[in-house]
Amino acid sequence: MKSYIAAASIAGLVWVGALSAQSVKPYVAEGPPEGKTGHQKMPDASAVVIKHLYQRAKQLVLESADAMPERDYTFRPTPKVMSFGEMVAHVAFVQIGDCAAAQGDTRLSPIDLTKSSKKDATALLKSSFDYCNPLYDTLTDVNGAAMVGVGAGRRTRVDALADNVADNLFLHYGNFITYLRLKGLTPPSSPGK
To answer: For domain 45-182, which CATH number applies: 1.20.120.450, 2.170.190.11, 3.30.70.270, 3.30.465.10?
Structure first.
């Protein structure tokens, strides 16, 4: 009886293996359809994600800067942290640095972080996006793999641009939420809440 069960089990496994081998076809890249010269280019996966996140972070940061009234640009939740206006200027400064590193630009002028009025800080913020937009607009997985920076700080272009999105824009947007809420304002990502 034991040998019958063992034989039936082996036969079942062989049958399942044969069945799945028939139904699973390996992927084979095909050439263009007859009469065509090539396939439509597929978008670069990493680049598409980074571009999308950049656009969303840009929208939230700009809308936050716009939502805070001029009189509250000097607001500090505690004495030891930056005012809202200083934080907006800081985001712009870091963004310019990240984008400069991503393109090997070493000709940066110092930024005056004391210019933290709504007019000055938002102008600086908008100019930082103007500086960075072309990098994100032209980002592909191929040019994103290029090494940028110097010495031990070398990394890929896509890494530098992703850091700007994650470690600067979204990180500080989280700070902006706190500042806005403490002033009784609704953050851009929470309309009606």
So the answer is: 1.20.120.450
